[in-house]
Design goal:
Elements: H1 8-14, E1 18-23, H2 34-42, E2 46-52, E3 63-66, E4 69-72, H3 85-95, E5 102-105, H4 110-124, E6 128-134, H5 150-161, E7 167-173, H6 185-197, E8 201-206, H7 212-227, H8 234-243, E9 269-274, H9 275-281, H10 285-288, H11 294-307
Parallel strand pairs: 1-2, 1-6, 2-5, 6-7
Antiparallel strand pairs: 3-4, 4-5, 7-9, 8-9
Protein name: DUF1152 domain-containing protein
InterPro entries: DUF1152 (IPR010581)
Pfam families: DUF1152 (PF06626)
């Protein structure tokens, strides 16, 4: 890329040497960070992977590094078909000769998650935490017509913003996939414009099929889908469809049959931000600080929604 036209995001990472890429919303979000993982590794950076986990048997899966973070490795036993994206990613990484440990965060509130991040950053000597959102609902501030699935996103956002001594960044991949969960993407674009005015939007860039990191991202997803055929990631399969040039109501997974999709080229763009500025937009940030469980987080969001005027949905006029 021409140096003068590089997104600020690339410049922000130039001085980083030990980077934690963490899926912020659970499920397959960590897979959305894999193109960045492989690109940064190719630059000689030390890069580590973590994920907010939905895995129900996580407490028995691996060794606890701290009360809310588990070390997942390929030598643990998981039955084919079982839902555990972190494990199947770990196993695939081993087959590629890559470091194969993936760290999995339990479903907790901000206080224990912050403690877990602190323990992991200390353990790995991290200088930069990069949260990755599969979708764009992490930019919803709290009064939009639809928030998507905000619990894990907001918890990760607040917990990481409370860390000290590390650089914090946010990348979103999959513009449009949150429509299924009621997100108004005009509100997302409005948020990006606001962050641009604040100097916190770090730019966007496309993933294309010929890029080696993208090809490895596809391989990792396909390997995990094969091991968990009932749980194919709708988000990642949609993103991969967009990257390969599919458009409109294209279904790469039987899980979406019966619904109408809008696969589009914008799904293959990373949108990047200064994490602190995104966190400061969150209208219910302060009450989130004392949460211990996801149930607490849910109550905070419900109370906030009861107390503020909800902005109506807006159609993008193009």
């Amino acid at each position: 890329m021409l140096p003068a036209l590089q997104p600020r995001f690339v410049q922000e990472l130039a001085s980083s040497q030990r980077i934690l890429i963490a899926g912020m919303g659970g499920g397959f979000d960590v897979f959305c960070g894999l193109p960045l993982y492989f690109a940064l590794r190719a630059e000689g950076k030390q890069v580590f992977l973590a994920n907010s986990s939905f895995t129900s048997f996580l407490p028995t899966l691996g060794r606890d590094l701290a009360p809310a973070v588990v070390t997942v490795t390929p030598d643990q036993r998981v039955t084919p078909g079982d839902y555990c994206p972190e494990y199947w990613l770990s196993r695939w990484l081993q087959t590629q000769g890559e470091p194969s440990t993936v760290y999995a965060f339990r479903q907790v509130g901000v206080q224990p998650l912050k403690t877990a991040y602190e323990a992991l950053c200390d353990h790995l000597t991290i200088d930069t935490v990069l949260l990755v959102d599969g979708g764009t609902d992490s930019l919803m501030r709290g009064d939009e017509s639809g928030l998507g699935t905000p619990h894990e996103d907001a918890t990760s956002l607040v917990a990481v913003n409370e860390l000290r001594g590390v650089k914090t960044l946010l990348a979103c991949l999959g513009f449009g996939v949150d429509a299924f969960h009621g997100v108004c993407h005009a509100h997302y674009l409005e948020a990006t414009a606001e962050l641009t005015r604040a100097g916190a939007y770090l730019g966007a860039f496309s993933l294309t099929p010929e890029m080696a990191p993208v090809q490895r991202y596809r391989d990792a997803c396909e390997a995990a889908f094969q091991m968990m055929p009932r749980y194919t990631s709708i988000v990642n399969s949609s993103i991969l469809s967009a990257i390969e040039g599919r458009y409109g109501d294209h279904h790469a997974s039987p899980r979406t049959h019966g619904s109408e999709l809008w696969i589009n080229p914008l799904m293959g763009l990373y949108w990047t931000y200064d994490l602190g500025a995104v966190a400061r937009r969150l209208q219910y940030y302060r009450p989130m600080l004392d949460t211990l469980s996801l149930s607490d987080v849910g109550l905070v969001i419900e109370r906030h929604r009861d107390e503020v005027p909800i902005r109506p949905r807006v159609e993008i006029p193009v």
